[in-house]
């Protein structure tokens, strides 16, 4: 397997039982992603962009097609057929996901969330503490919030924390679902700096953006999505 990720003929539908309708979200999606590449996907809301990422991450199960990922631990593995145990391992050690929303366990502080992500990668406690403080400072999250529960944070603060938690692990594959949504210009630049750093270190990325200016000179290829399918833009 030459590519890090190969998506072939991906299809996904949702059944609305109360209305007796079947809605097709994705149709005939093919993506080849080489190690170290960064592919951007654009398109209107509801066009199916996030569904692709959720199929890769295992949140959604697909009706047709395959998602081959060249895992460091398992070798080539079809994520569509991966077991729950395999997906948990990959999420902890190889595949990161930045969503627009922060879903965390209650009564867990911002510091604990980031630190736990680093510890999952096998780092020792002191290194985890050091890297946690480093990335929280990078995103200028007020130090008074570090030991607070994220449920009290603003939308922008939650998103910055979500990005920090995913990026600090330096995953082999990073999925970005609108990583700059609800962020101010300065925070967007800080996200861009970390993306560029991860790219230099070899992280492969697949990202969804509405902010085309943010993507400029950042992605290797761009796909535009419309009604569950896309065409290569550049």
TrEMBL record:
One of its GO terms (molecular function) is ATP binding. InterPro entries: AAA+_ATPase (IPR003593), ABC_transporter-like_ATP-bd (IPR003439), P-loop_NTPase (IPR027417). PROSITE patterns: ABC_TRANSPORTER_2 (PS50893). The keyword Nucleotide-binding applies. Keywords: ATP-binding, Nucleotide-binding. Pfam families: ABC_tran (PF00005). SUPFAM superfamilies: P-loop containing nucleoside triphosphate hydrolases (SSF52540). Residues 5-234 form the ABC transporter domain. The keyword Nucleotide-binding applies. Belongs to the ABC transporter superfamily. PANTHER family: ALPHA-D-RIBOSE 1-METHYLPHOSPHONATE 5-TRIPHOSPHATE SYNTHASE SUBUNIT PHNL, LIPOPROTEIN-RELEASING SYSTEM ATP-BINDING PROTEIN LOLD. This is Alpha-D-ribose 1-methylphosphonate 5-triphosphate synthase subunit PhnL. It comes from Cytobacillus oceanisediminis. The lineage of its organism: Bacteria, Bacillati, Bacillota, Bacilli, Bacillales.
């Amino acid at each position: 397997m030459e590519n890090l990720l190969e998506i072939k003929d991906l299809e996904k539908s949702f059944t609305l039982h109360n209305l007796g309708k079947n809605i097709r979200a994705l149709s005939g999606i093919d993506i080849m992603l080489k190690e170290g590449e960064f592919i951007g996907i654009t398109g209107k809301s509801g066009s199916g962009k996030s569904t692709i990422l959720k199929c890769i991450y295992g949140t959604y199960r697909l009706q047709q097609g395959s998602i081959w990922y060249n895992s460091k631990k398992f070798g080539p593995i079809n994520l569509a057929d991966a077991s729950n145990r395999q997906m948990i391992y990959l999420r902890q050690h190889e595949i990161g996901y930045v969503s627009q929303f922060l879903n965390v366990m209650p009564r867990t502080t911002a510091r604990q969330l980031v630190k736990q992500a680093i510890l999952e990668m096998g780092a020792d406690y002191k290194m985890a503490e050091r890297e946690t403080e480093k990335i929280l400072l990078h995103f200028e999250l007020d130090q008074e919030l570090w030991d607070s529960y994220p449920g009290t944070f603003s939308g922008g603060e939650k998103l910055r924390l979500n990005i920090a938690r995913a990026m600090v692990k330096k995953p082999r594959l990073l999925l970005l679902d609108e990583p700059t949504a609800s962020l101010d210009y300065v925070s967007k630049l800080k996200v861009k700096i970390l993306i560029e750093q991860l790219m230099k270190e070899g992280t492969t990325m697949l990202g969804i953006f509405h902010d085309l200016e943010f993507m400029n000179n950042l992605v290797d290829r761009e796909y535009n999505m419309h009604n569950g399918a896309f065409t290569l833009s550049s």
